[in-house]
Amino acid sequence: MTAVANRASSPHPLVDSAGPGWVAVETRAPLVWLGMGLVDLLARAAGEGLQVALVTDTRSRLTEPVRDLLESLRGKWVVRSGDGELYDGLDGRLLDGLGAAFADGPWPGVAEAFLRPGPATCGQLAVSWSMRHKAELGTMLGGSVETALETLGLPGPSGWGPHEPATEPWDKAALTEFARARAPQPTRLTVVSPAPAVLTMTVQRTVHGVEESVTGLVGLGDSSDPASARRLVEAPKVLAALCEYEMPLFGFLLARSGAPDLTHAPRLPVAPMPVGMLIGPPGVRELGIDVDKAQTRFEALAAGRKRLPGLVFPLAPRSQSDVNRLADVLASFDPVKLRRVLGRTVDRVIGASGGL
């Protein structure tokens, strides 16, 4: 038994049970944060090749950083209902035990509790983008977050930190120095804004320089508020603005509805709608995209450098005839090259298109 799971030798204090290839931590907290202990458990388990099951009851909600890190490390959210029934908190699949959360195979069904509507009064933008920086002393991280929120007319970032709550006051120089001191190890940070916005920033060295990847949720306001609808229409401008800042690699925006505090309940969410996609200059070159043809066929917007611009593809359907716009755009690319360009966001993007 591994050090993470073995209570008799060097146990992790959060581990409550374990099985072949997995460990589980149970909590009944109404809100599960990405605290220092959970960060440590997930990191140590990943280092030992273990997957983690986070077990809660039906009333618990996860913050976006918890959901994001759990998903990134192939962990599972297991929900235990009042009658002892277990199900996957993200897809509703019924489970006959904790170990079943990590097993492949046919679904035995979907939990009834998962199908009950959850709070969905807030318009949200699920964001994902990556930027390439030069590996030099003058490089400053975090500017892409400032640019995105400013473009949406929302308050800028207010805090950051390696876990929740993100209590360090927003300071790009301090954030950059923190990541630089950890190099060449990747750095994962939580960034927050009173917008509200809660984002995960991952910084890592690559053969091309320093890559800054951002994912998370941005609140657009009450779904019935005209200002929320206006921000949604203008969301693709965020991707165009990123092209003016350093070197963007890729960007993707999804509109969705959810809770005002941007947390996740173990219930079926409202289906998201693709809003915009950015293929940065390196991707435009690698995919061999004809910029003029993309502008004509897909109404793509060229942004950034004129010699080799990035391309912003507006994706929100304006009529029944273009509801498959994202799938049409993706189908025009070489699928092997596309997966290489999209990186870790590939499944999310392809899933939003309905599959290729």
Notes on the protein architecture:
It is a single chain. This protein is of the alpha+beta class. Helix content is 26%, strand content 29%. Strand 7 (86-88) and strand 8 form a beta hairpin. The mean pLDDT is 90.
Major sheet details: 10 strands, antiparallel
Strand content: 25-35%
How many domains comprise the coordinates?
2
Give the end-to-end Cα distance, rounded to a whole number of Å.
41 Å
Number of strands: 18
Order of helices and strands: EEEHEEHEEEEHEEHEEEHHEEHHEEHHH
For the residues shown, what is the average pLDDT? 90
Strand order of the largest sheet: 11-10-12-13-14-9-15-16-18-17
Broad shape: globular
Task: Count the DSSP helices.
Answer: 11
As a percent range, the share of helical residues equals: 25-40%
* Rg value: 21 Å
Q: Which class best fits the helix and strand makeup?
A: alpha+beta
Low-pLDDT regions: none
Considering the chains and any ligands shown, give keywords for the structure:
Ribosomal Protein L15, Chain: K, domain 2, 2 domains, ten-stranded antiparallel beta sheet, 356 residues, alpha+beta
Give a quick summary of the entry.
By secondary structure, the chain is of the alpha+beta class.
List the helices and strands and how they pair.
Blueprint: E1 17-19, E2 22-26, E3 31-32, H1 36-47, E4 51-57, E5 61-62, H2 64-72, E6 76-80, E7 86-88, E8 94-95, E9 122-133, H3 143-151, E10 159-161, E11 168-169, H4 172-182, E12 187-193, E13 197-206, E14 209-222, H5 226-233, H6 236-242, E15 247-258, E16 273-279, H7 281-286, H8 291-298, E17 301-303, E18 310-314, H9 325-331, H10 335-342, H11 346-352
Parallel strand pairs: 2-4, 3-5, 4-6
Antiparallel strand pairs: 1-2, 6-7, 7-8, 9-14, 9-15, 10-11, 10-12, 12-13, 13-14, 15-16, 16-18, 17-18
Helix pairs in contact: 3-6
